[in-house]
Amino acid sequence: MSWIAVALLRGVYFECSMTGANITLFRRHLCNEKYSHCWTELDKFPCDGTAIPQSERMAVLSIIRAESQVLGWILIGSVMTFTFLLTCVARCYSPISYMQLKFWRMYTQKESQFLDSYTAQHAEKLAERNITSFFDLTKPIPMRSPPRQAWEKISSFYKFRSMDQYYSILHKYVSTCEDLENPVVRASLRSENDFSNPAALAFVDESKLVV
């Protein structure tokens, strides 16, 4: 959508396409019996292969570019208005209050920051241990890491349920897992009619979509 708006604001592509379009109404609007040979040579206006004076060509092309820019701004305004209305509707119909939603967003940001920090630290220690063991020809020092099943559990997408009080899939995992070393997650109570996330909670899984 953005490149369409940029193309319309520049006006070059619209200029080429409309001068080549065989639309009687549009040609009458541009030429309007002002310039001789305008109807027959309109498709050559973007180029220099016409005998019509440059001032007359530029006058016609400026009209096309102005109309293209108007369409571009209309497109941008429409997208912004639609996005604004969609956000308003999502907030109005959200089952979560504004203050809780604000806290929820802050929590997910902090959780993502801590997860990145702890992951980097643990990866650094594990890499250092393995390199040291390799060069010193010694057995590696035991290190505890989350099992594969745990990574799979926290990598799934969050599903909002009105009866749960979890702010992320990681929050749910550590709260419901019986044994963190051998993950077996207890079945949680589910609402029969609530299986999809409200639009206001789209930010919860944003960090999982960035590789």
TrEMBL record:
**UniProt keyword list:** Ion channel, Ion transport, Membrane, Transmembrane, Transmembrane helix, Transport
What residues form the membrane-spanning segments? 70-93
Q: What biological processes does GO assign it? A: ATP export
Q: Does Nucleotide-binding count among this protein's keywords?
A: no
* Subcellular location field: Membrane
Broad class of where this protein is predominantly found: membrane
GO terms for MF: monoatomic cation channel activity
| Topological category with respect to the lipid bilayer | Multi-pass membrane protein
Q: Name one GO cellular component term.
A: plasma membrane
Q: Does the keyword Ribonucleoprotein apply?
A: no
Pfam families, from UniProt? Ca_hom_mod
Which PANTHER family would you find in this protein's record?
A: CALCIUM HOMEOSTASIS MODULATOR PROTEIN, CALCIUM HOMEOSTASIS MODULATOR PROTEIN 6
| Family statement drawn from the similarity comment of this UniProt entry | Belongs to the CALHM family.
The name of this protein is Calcium homeostasis modulator protein 6 isoform X2
